[in-house]
User: Fold this.
Amino acid sequence: MTDVISPPRRLRRGRPEWLRGPALIGVVVIAVWVLVALTVPLWSPYDPLAGVAPRLQGPNWHHLMGTDQLGRDVFTRMLWGSRTSLPVAFVVIVSSVIIGTVVGAVAGYRGGWIDAVLMRFVDITMAFPPILLAMAITASLGPGVRNALIAMVLVWWPIYARLLRAQVIAVKQREYVESAEAIGVKRFTILRRYILPMAYTPVLVNATMDFGQVVLLTASLSFIGLGARPPSPEWGAMITEGATQFYSWWIATAPGLAILLVVLAFNYVGDALRDSFDVKGVV
Amino acid sequence: MPFLLFGIASVVFLVSRMTPGDPLVTIVGERNLNNPDIVAAAKAKWGLDQSVLQQYFAFMKNLVKGNLGTSFTTRQPVMHDLWQRLPATLELTMCALVGGVSVGIVLGVLAARHRNKFIDHIARFFALIGSSLPAFWAGLLLLYVFYARFGWLPGPGRIDPRGIAPNRVTGFYTVDSLLQGDFGLFKDSVMHLILPATVLGWGVVGIVSRLVRASLLDEFSIDYVRVARAMGLRERTVVNTHALRNALLPTITIVAFTFAFLLTGAVLTETVFSWPGVGSYAVDASRNLDYPAIIGVTLLGGTAFLLTNLFSDIAYAFADPRIRLS
Assistant:
């Protein structure tokens, strides 16, 4: 009975409080999609790029979501689509969080003119509707998945910089930070070990919510013709192809459902996280 | 505010110089590169034979004069194109905004009154779908069902392709057709608005209903609501005339954010519905790598976003007396 005060181990190890109901389903959906993206080349039902059946068949037992105008299996292509969308969204979010963290931390902790300059830059970037700026940058760099990715990072990181800066400023006024400064702990160490752990939660929660939005933006850029180009099985590009075969509704339906599922899953998970950690959005 | 405007223009200039290779291509287009006259004129106008700094000043000078260059595809000044197409976008986004905010408030109130009940979950699901739905896909699907399959609603475009557009007064087809006294045309333009406005407005529903629910629940725990309930007022009166009025205040601030969402949605929705607005102009421009047009639209988007922010601040001050006092 010596450790009555410490919280029961079981509570801490068990399922987190937010991981219930729809959020749990969301996590499962995301896990399944990640698994598909990683392993689909091993068990892919058909070749995603080759015509394997008569053209424009409706959904049937052999082709769960029909075939497109080149006789390719739509279901297979939808599965392969996750291999573009998920890694791209992952890279965009992770890079944005890293850049945003560095900029936000430096701006918030140092303050002064560095803060002023960095935050003015953030303000200006955030003054644009994300898709328009991403479109302009991608078009300037030249269409393609890689350039779309660069454009999305450029558009996305300011959100996290602003979020983290606000947190850092709040935490930096705590007494324990002051005492650390008083005993001469190095500034970088204070920032890394004393401030950031207290400040990063809102960034992580928002990053989860944004994951879905980046999947959407990736598909949108491809739909417009600035991201992945049509032969490749990417969800947005597939919908573009489906739009040209308007009366064969299944071609566009499959990738659209895939996007909807993934984004909805991330939204539910992000929502639950936000409620649980009581984090405000960047609105 | 003026600083941000200036910043927006600078970022746009930066982006326009990001193109690998010759900035001349972004101004006159590849086809005209062999024409020495055009190249010389463009060089003089945009200061291309000078340093980057001077180019920047030339860009700003042209901007102040309202000169955004000439679109490669339409061969018209970009400013002229934008002016032509802006009303179509505004008409669509306003319909979506009004519809989306109304449905969002109703859903938010329902969800808050039946907190954690079935209705709450349904409202939340409906709202989350709205922010998860790819607008271009939803548009295609709705067109397929309501236009191609059942023929209940008209197809893409602002009016029937055989119809004649009304004389431009405001540029809003609904308003202009009424001004002409042409009720057939008015009905036609309203019918054409339904599907794209639904697609666009759905996302707004999600944002607004979530906010209204949260702020209503906050109000419910404040004393004046408890007093109103203790006085025996009907629940409907408590919610609608007491709590909701206060809960709606934050909704005003969200309008600016919503507007950005609408602009994003408009880009994609207009493309699917062949809506001749600024959004489809941006997409056409991107597909054809029509740089002056892309830059023009980006500039317009940034400025519009700023203006709505300003507008929502002013509206908030009007709605909330506490802000006016301090």
